[in-house]
Write a structure and sequence with these properties.
single chain
Length: 74
């Protein structure tokens, strides 16, 4: 006697194929978003580190002295 649980079920097969497609699309979107966020974090970290080094290595510009302007007579 054959076991009925071992028979192929076309409805279940189609349902699992659809579920697998949806899961694959969701996984690819999540992976892409993770890569975008990692790239953004890396670029912002590099920018802040380079800004800190540039600020540390460049001399401070002297402040400009204010000059007095003559008042106009009315």
């Amino acid at each position: 006697m054959k076991n009925p649980w071992l028979k192929k079920n076309p409805m279940l097969s189609m349902w699992l194929s659809g579920a697998n497609a949806v899961a694959g699309a969701a996984r690819s979107r999540a992976t892409a978003e993770g890569k975008r966020q990692a790239a953004l974090a890396t670029s912002s970290m590099i920018k802040s580190a380079s800004d800190a080094w540039i600020a540390a290595l460049t001399p401070v510009a002297p402040k400009k002295k204010r000059t007095r302007t003559k008042r106009r007579a009315k």
